[in-house]
Amino acid sequence: MNLFDAQITFCYTRDLEATARFYEETVGLTLTLDQGGCRIYRTAENAYLGFCGRAEAERPAGVILTLVTDDVDGWYAKLKEVGVSFEKPPATNAEYGIYHCFFRDPNGYLLEIQRFDNREWDAS
Question: Which of 10, 24, 53, 86 stands 20 to 30 A from 38 (CA)?
Fold first, then answer.
């Protein structure tokens, strides 16, 4: 059996328009599919984040949406420049062999931008 062709993580939001502005204009993700009540954004070649409008959406707990890149500092600078407030600036986490930072989207989802310093990671 082969691996899957792609991966989408769907999250709920009370305000789909504010979420769309944040991910499209602030973060700069590409809108891949607008289904009306849900929008899907490409984060990597075959990886996506989807947001669906739901009136009953609650503030998320225990979820971290991690975006992996070698350019953590570049993303940090870009997002700071457009007004994103970070909960944690870029720092090394020796326990996990990573370099990362954290911020939240308009829904309260915790986002992490991360680089694996441990070269055992293979994203291919």
Answer: 86
User: Comparing C-alpha atoms, which of 44, 47, 94 is closest to residue 70?
Assistant: 44
Q: Residues of the chain with pLDDT > 90: what percent?
A: 85
Examine the pLDDT at 123 and tell me if it is beyond 80.
no
Residue 43 has pLDDT above 70, yes or no: yes
Residue of 46, 25, 27, 49 lying closest to 38 (CA atoms): 49
Look at the block and give the residue holding tokens 């407030």. 85
Instruction: Provide the domain count of the chain.
Output: 1
- Whether 124 is in a domain gets the answer no
d(CA 4, CA 69): 22
- CA neighbor of 64 nearest in space, from 120, 5, 9: 9
